[in-house]
Design a protein that fits this description.
It contains 5 helices and 9 strands. By secondary structure, it is of the alpha+beta class. It has a single domain, classed as Trna Endonuclease, Chain: A, domain 1 (3-Layer(aba) Sandwich), CATH 3.40.1350. The protein has a 6-stranded mixed beta sheet with strand order 1-7-6-4-3-2. A 3-stranded antiparallel beta sheet has the order 5-9-8. A hairpin with a 2-residue loop joins β6 and β7.
Length: 163
């Protein structure tokens, strides 16, 4: 695991993420696999906004560090089953947690599916256009504690208090 890495990002990302989340919500029935597992009711808009913000932050950090990468579309009208990013030939799934989060989490079922993901980029906004970023390999996540959450079994890592 590498991180946390402190990242600054442009304020406009908050607005872009909110706009993309509204668009995603409008298409949610088509894009959420019609499964209750992926629905969060009234929380959906916040979940989408946070996810888009994390993806924008990671892409920004990669550009700032001059790391070449390929990316999946931020929004598509059909499900796009592929890693969010390809960095150094490795598939990366971006996961974003809220500012108040005390742990990093990965859904067990999604983790075990093979969609070419060999690492994760976790993003935790910390306020005032700053965030913490962690890079974690697929194998490292597999070694995390497996617990059952409100919605599904998941792997979790408790973030040390200094992060």
């Amino acid at each position: 695991m590498t991180g946390p890495i402190a990242v600054q990002y442009p304020a406009i990302f908050e607005w872009i993420a909110a706009q993309l989340a509204e668009l995603r919500l409008a298409h949610s029935d088509d894009l959420d696999h019609l499964s209750e597992e992926y629905r969060r009711g009234k929380q959906s808009l916040d979940v989408y906004r946070l996810g888009y913000l994390g993806e924008l932050i990671v892409r920004h950090w990669l550009v700032e560090k001059n790391y070449p990468f390929e990316s999946s579309p931020l929004f598509a009208t059909k499900n796009y089953i592929a890693p969010d990013l390809i960095v150094g030939g490795k598939g990366v799934d971006v996961k974003t947690v809220p500012q108040y989060a005390r742990e990093l989490q990965v859904n067990e079922k999604a983790h075990k599916k093979s969609k070419g993901v060999s690492q994760y980029a976790f993003v935790k906004p910390t306020g005032m256009q700053t965030a913490n970023l962690w890079w974690v390999t697929h194998d490292e996540v597999s070694a995390w504690e497996l617990v059952t959450s409100t919605y599904t079994p998941l792997y979790r890592y408790v973030i040390p208090q200094t992060s």
